[in-house]
Amino acid sequence: MATHPRPQTLAIIGFGNFGQFLAKTFVRQGHRVLGQSRSDYSTVAKELGAEYFNTADEVLDQNPDVVILCTSIMSLKTVMTKFPLQRLENRVVVDVCSVKEYPRDLMMEMLPPSADILCTHPMFGPESGKHSWKNLPFVYDIVRVYNEERQKIVEDFILIWELEQCSMVPMTSKEHDSFAASTQFITHTTGRMLAGLSLTSTPIDTKGYESLLGVIDTTIKDSFDLYYGLYRYNYNSKSQIQRLEDSLRDLRMKLEEEERKEQDQ
User: Fold this and answer.
1) Which segments of 71-136 are extended strands (E)?
2) Prephenate/arogenate dehydrogenase domain: from which residue to which, for each copy (predicted)?
3) Rg of the Cα atoms in the chain
4) Do residues 8 and 31 touch, judged by C-beta distance below 8 A?
5) Exposed, middle or buried: residue 246 (CB in 10 Å: 0-12, 13-18, 19+)?
6) How many Å apart are CA 96 and CA 177, to the nearest integer?
7) Please, what are the domains in the chain?
8) For burial by CB atoms within 10 Å, which of 23, 27, 48, 117 has the most?
């Protein structure tokens, strides 16, 4: 069991499925975990070894080292608007959204100027990280840290993921979203397009076809809201949709051109 050498008090704002998934590992490493959400997860929190609070003010009264905004990209602004943001002065604030530029810009705009900001994307979840986080990518962008004491808090938080042997990827939020539009968004788009064709397994499946079915299965497990968030809040996604449409059109034109050549012979 990986035990953190310097346990922290970690507040998870948004204690749903993903928040609980993170809490399990945080608790195992010896951290004090505080959960808060719209729904009552007090029973679940107790089972995980975490503490649950009904309001954000109650959580902040516990003086957490790190406040983790663990909400969907769709609801992030709403959650932040209702949150007592003035109480985040001189605190480390982290997000775990699958898009990075939007939450970075939102936190820089809405958080007190003295709040430190760490943007992260654990590129795995309750299914892919069920048994281990080893070699799974953890992307992080240290946006701003104001003093050595809080720099140490940020480093200790990042150490959580290093102890789990994640593949650590320091990267700017802009770089992340540029790459994610080509990988994450295109994968989800392809999977949903193929799902619309109602493809099923056949007696003569090739390995390539089995891979396509795997893409469908992986992507449709995620909610449409998550997919829409990748489209709406990644500034690069609309251009990727256009490129995908252009590529399909060009491919069809090539096929039709070859067909015409054959007919003219």
Assistant:
1) 92-95, 116-122
2) 8-265
3) 22
4) yes
5) exposed
6) 14
7) 9-171 (3.40.50.720), 175-256 (no CATH)
8) 23
